[in-house]
Fold:
Amino acid sequence: MRFLVVLAHPLPDSFAASVAKVVVETLRQNGHDVDLLDLYGEDFDPRLSVRERRTYFDTPCDTSAVDPVIARLQAADGLILVFPQWWFNFPAILKGFFDRIFAPGVAFHHDQAGGRIRPALGNIKHLYAFTTTGSPWWVVKLYMGDPVRRLLKRGIAAFCAQHLDFRMLALHDMDRVTERTLATHLQRVRRMVERL
Structure:
């Protein structure tokens, strides 16, 4: 299988980068093809352009500025996201990735009669997310309702692909964990990826 691994963290020595490295190494060790898309490293522009927005409901909409990245998504059998949660949400660069790459005709089709959108990412069979939060688990899950998980599972995964294997692993209270906790979490990441 071929996996697109998307890293969304500005620091090359971040824990997220360590997670992405474990993901890529484990996939390759298990015989998978891997395409690593480091959004910051490749200077991805998250801003939806005027032209992209004006043609959003056209068939097809204009995705020409990001067609190379779209081709990488369409060539994949699985998508793995590695990112921190900031303010209980995606980093802006990852939100921009969804805004620009998960476009009509790419990730979904508009229902011209005004009904539900129809999934278009039939190639994606697995969507895994590896994330960290600075907040304790109970704040994220009980107080905030786990917004990132809901957005990924009920929004992006459900609306863009069918029969998708969705999994998410979060390390909470990131700003106060020990080195031992970080190492243990990397082992959990490896075990989860080995199932693919």
Remarks:
- The first helix runs from residue 15 to 29.
- The chain is about 40% helix and 20% strand.
- The beta strands are 2-7, 33-38, 78-84, 108-109, 118-119, 126-132, 165-171.
- The two ends are 9 Å apart (CA to CA).
